[in-house]
Structures are given as C-alpha cells and as structure tokens.
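Quick one, tokens below. Sequence please?
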C-alpha cells in the first residue's frame, strides 16, 4: 500500500464523533474534537461512573479554558452543549468517525470494534489510538477492515503537534484521506506510518525509556540516570516522560517492543513494579516533582 499523501477530495465530511473510552487520552481528544471539528462528540465507557468521570473532566477543562480567557462564554456554552456521555453504544449509530482509546489489550480493542460495527453505518470511519498494538490485528475480525486506521495522539494531546496516521495493507484511500483531513482540522501535523510495532515515535521512545530503565536495573541509581539524561535538551527526562504517559502504558510499550524485537529492546520488571505503585517521583500539592520516591 503506497504511503503517499492521499487526495483531500476523497475525505468524508465528519458530522458526529463517537469516542470509546473515557480515560486520560480519550477525554483530552474529546475536547480537541469539539473545539476544532465543532461537531457533537459522544463518549462511552463500560459503566456510568467512568462515563461521568470522563464527561466531568472534559467539562472542567472547558471551564478552565474560559477562566484563562482562552474562550469566551458563548464558545464555552457551545462546547459544553456538544459534549455528551452514554453507556449505550447505539448512540453511535449516526456517527461518521469513531475512535477508541481503551485498555491496551488486543482482545479488548477487537471486542470494542465488533460492538461498534454492529451499530454504525458502513461508511463510518473507525480509528484506534493504540500506542503499539498492530492495527491490522485489531481489525482482523471486522466486516469492513478497510475503514480502520490508526490515529495515534501524544500526551498532552492539546500541546503535542503530531498525530501518527497508521495505514494497514487494507486501509482504503478514502479512510486515509479522511484521517489526514481530520488531523489537519484538529490543528495537528500528521504523518502516515506503516503498521509496525511502535509505529515511528514509540519505537524511538521505547529505546530511550527501555535503556534508562535497564541502566537502573543493572545498578545505576534512578537519580543518576535522571540527572545524566536531563542535558539532552528533551523537555523531560525519561522518567518524567514515563510518568506523563502512565507507567502501565509505558511498561506495555516496552513489552510490545521486546516481544517484537527481543534482541533490540528491553522489557522492564522494575517498571511493572513501579506501575503497581503508580509513580516514580514524589510530588507536591501542585504536582511538582520532589526527588525520588524510593
Ligand atoms: N493539557 C493541556 N495543556 C497542557 C498540559 C495538559 N496536560 N500540560 C501542559 N500544557 C500546556 C500548558 O497549558 C502550556 O500552554 P500555554 O503556554 O498555552 O499556557 C504549555 O503546555 C506549556 O506547559 P508548561 O509551561 O506548564 O510546562 P512545560 O513547558 O514544561 O511543558 C510539556 C510541559 C508540554 C508536557 C513538555 O514538558 C513536553 O513537551 N514534554 C514531552 C511530552 C512528550 O514527549 N509526549 C509524548 C509522550 S509519548 C505518548 O504520548 C505516546 C504513547 O503512545 C505513549
């Protein structure tokens, strides 16, 4: 499948967005979709409590934007009205773009899309925000895998300029074209990447994060690795970045790369242990890091 730029003329017009998952990533891009696409966005999750938590977080982000003077009261009201939550996937029946950001497990994502495909129209684009699972494998059981595309955001979604649009061997031109136009409308620069472990960005990041964890596991103290990597000029040290993406997600990214390329990537038992604990750094009430949590 050639990875050339598809013609924007092929792109479908998006009039309603469905988001499966109401967690950290999903809530952030729900906000981006209402702000930039200016269409209704419905989010769903496995229970009402999760849906409510996601919707509340989006609503308070809108309030914060207004409090900071980034949007006026009219805009704030308009955005609030475009956001809704549901536990009933049937509410996605008239969506033309559905994106998922649920737990990074192949079967979970397959089940999500099987349920979505039962209610949406044949022309609805399906997008996955997976960070390192195979998009082809996610779509393997779909009736229409040609309308599935990877659409990989980075955290924090509002700030990071890139989206990786992941093209499988069966993704059709219309889907790819729609994904590129959606990314552009969201104000992101998009690159079309192959469906390979970690795509491009996480492949490179996994190397950095894996080597940093490996240095710790082979005897160099955390604080030494942290200080030694800070002068690289990256906006965060590898450990700060791991906290930002979430330790569970980080551990999963390393596992996926180790499984795909065992001779080139480390998995990290220490990171799995830290993930149970939930954090690496001690933080003050404002979230500023305070040395190491040992
Ligand atoms: N949501 C929305 N906006 C945020 C934000 C968030 N969570 N965090 C920071 N911002 C905004 C701030 O509001 C601020 O915007 P303004 O200038 O308009 O006020 C701007 O970002 C800068 O923030 P700060 O001054 O507070 O802090 P900073 O300059 O230290 O930047 C950072 C913070 C943007 C997170 C920066 O440290 C950074 O770019 N870090 C690297 C992030 C990165 O590499 N992400 C990719 C992770 S990999 C991934 O996500 C993929 C995966 O699959 C695992």
């Amino acid at each position: 499948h050639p990875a050339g730029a598809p013609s924007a003329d092929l792109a479908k017009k998006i009039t309603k967005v469905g988001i499966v998952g109401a967690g950290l990533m999903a809530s952030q891009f729900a906000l981006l979709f209402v702000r930039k696409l200016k269409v209704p966005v419905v989010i769903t999750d496995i229970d009402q409590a999760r849906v409510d938590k996601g919707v509340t977080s989006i609503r308070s982000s809108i309030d914060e934007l207004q409090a900071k003077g980034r949007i006026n009261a009219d805009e704030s009201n308009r955005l609030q009205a475009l956001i809704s939550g549901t536990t009933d996937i049937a509410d996605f029946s008239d969506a033309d773009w559905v994106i998922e950001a649920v737990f990074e497990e192949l079967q979970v994502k397959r089940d999500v899309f099987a349920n979505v495909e039962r209610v949406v129209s044949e022309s609805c684009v399906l997008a996955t925000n997976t960070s390192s699972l195979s998009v082809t494998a996610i779509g393997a059981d779909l009736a229409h895998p040609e309308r599935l595309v990877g659409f990989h955001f980075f955290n924090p979604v509002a700030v990071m300029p890139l989206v990786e649009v992941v093209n499988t061997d069966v993704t059709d031109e219309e889907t790819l074209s729609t994904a590129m136009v959606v990314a552009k409308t969201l104000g992101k620069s998009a690159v079309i990447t192959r469906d390979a472990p970690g795509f491009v960005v996480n492949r490179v990041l996994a190397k950095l994060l894996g080597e940093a964890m490996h240095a710790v596991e082979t005897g160099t103290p955390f604080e030494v690795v942290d200080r030694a990597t800070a002068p690289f000029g990256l906006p965060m040290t590898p450990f700060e970045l791991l906290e930002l993406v979430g330790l569970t997600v980080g551990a999963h990214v390393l596992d996926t790369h180790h499984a795909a390329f065992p001779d080139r990537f480390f998995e990290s038992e220490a990171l799995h242990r830290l993930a149970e604990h939930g954090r690496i750094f001690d933080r003050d009430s404002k979230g500023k890091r305070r040395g190491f949590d040992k």
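The mean pLDDT is 94. Strands lie at 17-20, 41-44, 83-86, 97-100, 125-128, 148-152, 162-167, 189-194.
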